[in-house]
């Protein structure tokens, strides 16, 4: 159940347009859970869902910034990324913790089709949570997020997350199931809308989605 307050008329119109296109409960749409991490296996970089170049090596069991031993040391040169089945032209924020025994550059990447955007950060001896907020121009139904290491560097990584918003939220650890639902439906055939004044609306939505993974 999602409760929206302070919606502009354009924002309210976008919700109404989606509701009309779905014909209420009849049609399906992709739902990105605003309270969840959109990446699966968020601190298990050895999982198959993470695509890794052959020039990288990974080792697990390192101390992580939350006091556990779920960090992964990554060395070599190459890219590690995960592709999610979500609209590529939305606003997203990719975040990940990183540290290194010596200063090391790490590229945070977002890619869809031929378009790629990169933010380069420097990991040091203390754990830092780095964020990359971006919105791609490419329209599609998939988007890729990941990291790229230069040759000779070793970096410890933990807690990859993607939020469908401008900034990172509190970290949510995921396993096989993440916050992307491919066959969601509205749970009602009528929208609950309240208009408070010019360009000011509230709306209550109920969404149903099958759990996957």
What does this structure look like?
It is a single chain. The chain is mainly beta and about 210 residues long. About 30% of the residues are buried. The protein has one helix and 14 strands. Helix content is about 5%, strand content about 50%. The mean pLDDT is about 95. The strands form three sheets. Strands 3, 4, 5, 6, 7, 8, 9 and 10 form an eight-stranded antiparallel sheet that branches. A three-stranded antiparallel sheet has the order 1-13-12. A three-stranded antiparallel sheet has the order 2-11-14, with no helix packed on it.
Describe the SSE topology.
Blueprint: E1 2-7, H1 9-22, E2 29-32, E3 51-52, E4 56-62, E5 71-84, E6 91-99, E7 104-112, E8 115-123, E9 128-135, E10 143-163, E11 180-186, E12 192-197, E13 200-205, E14 207-208
Antiparallel strand pairs: 1-13, 2-11, 3-5, 4-5, 5-10, 6-9, 6-10, 7-8, 7-10, 11-14, 12-13
- If helices are DSSP runs of H or I spanning 4 or more residues, what is the number of helices? 1
Mean pLDDT rating: 95
**How helix-rich are the residues, as a percent range?**
under 10%
**Structural class determined from secondary elements:** mainly beta
Strand content range: over 45%
Distance between the termini: 22 Å
Q: What is the strand tally?
A: 14
Are there runs of 5+ residues with pLDDT below 50, and where? none
SSE pattern, N- to C-terminal: EHEEEEEEEEEEEEE
Reported for the largest beta sheet, the result is: 8 strands, antiparallel
Shape: elongated
